């Protein structure tokens, strides 16, 4: 109606002067400025930030990236155009705030160059701090040959079985080479407590070599030593009366020996002998009695 158009235009001019904005823009410019774009694109287009709204609480203000285009796009000359622009503005503002919250929940709007006014910050929902990574603890190794608190016959039998196996390895090395080998010396040194015991073991095999192995198998097995009586047991010395079976390495009828005794003393474990024990006495007494000082170390 022509009679009402003029007052609307005057009202539009008064609002324009009161707000201090720039000249109104055309509706075509409004529609193009209301295109939904991403927050990053909006920042790139405008180069500035403007607060678009706050919550009812003053302590928690909500701000977001402004709509693209001129901030005065909503000020239309016609009443109908203004109403349409405001409805679109509300939709666009709601979409922009939702996009900001979904993007990171942390948007800071700061005043750009030449832009004045308060700046609001979106409260960010921060996840609880994750615990600091800890270095993995080194794997614990259990020594299967660790000396038990109580030494009994079963434990000594286990040690003797391993030492019997090592003696078998040393004997097979000498039998195959028909000579005293470095392997023999290395093994016997690892399982004998002193030089005296090492010499006795070496002299015995040297005698077998010189005699042509009269009663030793071509591929000898291992002797079997089993505790019959524990005579002394401590962490510093073990003495036991034992039975010895040589049938796995000898040919023919076994020789009957007087009571056999074993003496063991502690030693540092090695790759060859991890048992923590070395032989300090291995044999019988000519008169059949118990050995004297079976745990003494002799040069």
Relevant terms:
single chain, 4 strands, 299 residues, 4-stranded antiparallel sheet, alpha+beta, disordered N terminus
Q: Rounded to an integer, what's the Rg over CA atoms?
A: 50 Å
Helix content estimate: 25-40%
Structural class: alpha+beta
Number of separate domains: 2
Q: Note the total helix count.
A: 7
Please outline the major beta sheet: 4 strands, antiparallel
H and E order: HHHHHHHEEEE
What is the overall shape? Answer: globular
Read across the widest sheet, the strand sequence of neighbours is 1-2-3-4
> Termini distance?
130 Å
Total number of beta strands: 4
Strand content: 5-15%
Unreliable spans are 1-37, 47-123
Please tell me the overall pLDDT. 73
Quaternary organisation of the protein chains: single chain
How would you explain this protein's 3D organization?
This protein has a 4-stranded antiparallel β-sheet with strand order 1-2-3-4, covered by helices on one side. The chain folds into 2 domains: 21-124, no CATH class; 153-284. A hairpin with a 4-residue loop joins strand 1 (224-233) and strand 2. It has 7 helices and 4 strands. Mean pLDDT is 73; it is low at 1-37 and 47-123. Helix 5 packs antiparallel against helix 6 (182-191). The protein is globular and about 85 Å long. By secondary structure, the chain is of the alpha+beta class.
């Amino acid at each position: 109606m022509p009679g009402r158009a003029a007052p609307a235009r005057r009202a539009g001019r008064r609002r324009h002067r009161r707000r201090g904005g720039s000249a109104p823009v055309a509706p075509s410019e409004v529609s193009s400025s209301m295109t939904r774009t991403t927050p990053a694109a909006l920042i790139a287009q405008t180069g500035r930030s403007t607060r678009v709204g706050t919550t009812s609480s003053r302590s928690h203000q909500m701000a977001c990236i402004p709509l693209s285009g001129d901030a005065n796009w909503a000020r239309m000359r016609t009443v109908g155009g203004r109403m349409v622009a405001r409805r679109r503005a509300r939709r666009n503002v709601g979409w922009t705030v939702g996009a900001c919250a979904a993007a990171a929940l942390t948007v800071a709007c700061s005043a750009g160059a030449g832009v004045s006014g308060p700046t609001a910050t979106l409260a960010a929902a921060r996840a609880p701090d994750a615990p600091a990574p800890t270095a993995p603890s080194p794997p614990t190794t259990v020594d299967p040959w660790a000396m038990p608190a109580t030494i009994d016959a079963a434990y000594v039998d286990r040690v003797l079985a391993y030492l019997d196996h090592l003696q078998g390895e040393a004997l097979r090395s000498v039998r195959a080479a028909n000579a005293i080998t470095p392997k023999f010396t290395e093994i016997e040194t690892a399982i004998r407590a002193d030089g005296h015991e090492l010499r006795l073991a070496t002299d015995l095999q040297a005698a077998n070599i010189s005699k042509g192995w009269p009663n030793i198998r071509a591929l000898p097995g291992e002797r079997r030593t089993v505790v019959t009586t524990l005579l002394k047991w401590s962490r510093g010395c073990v003495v036991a009366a034992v039975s010895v079976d040589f049938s796995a390495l000898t040919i023919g009828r076994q020789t009957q020996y007087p009571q056999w005794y074993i003496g063991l003393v502690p030693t540092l474990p090695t790759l060859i002998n991890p048992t923590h024990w070395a032989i300090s006495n291995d044999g019988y007494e000519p008169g059949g009695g118990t050995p004297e000082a079976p745990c003494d170390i002799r040069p």
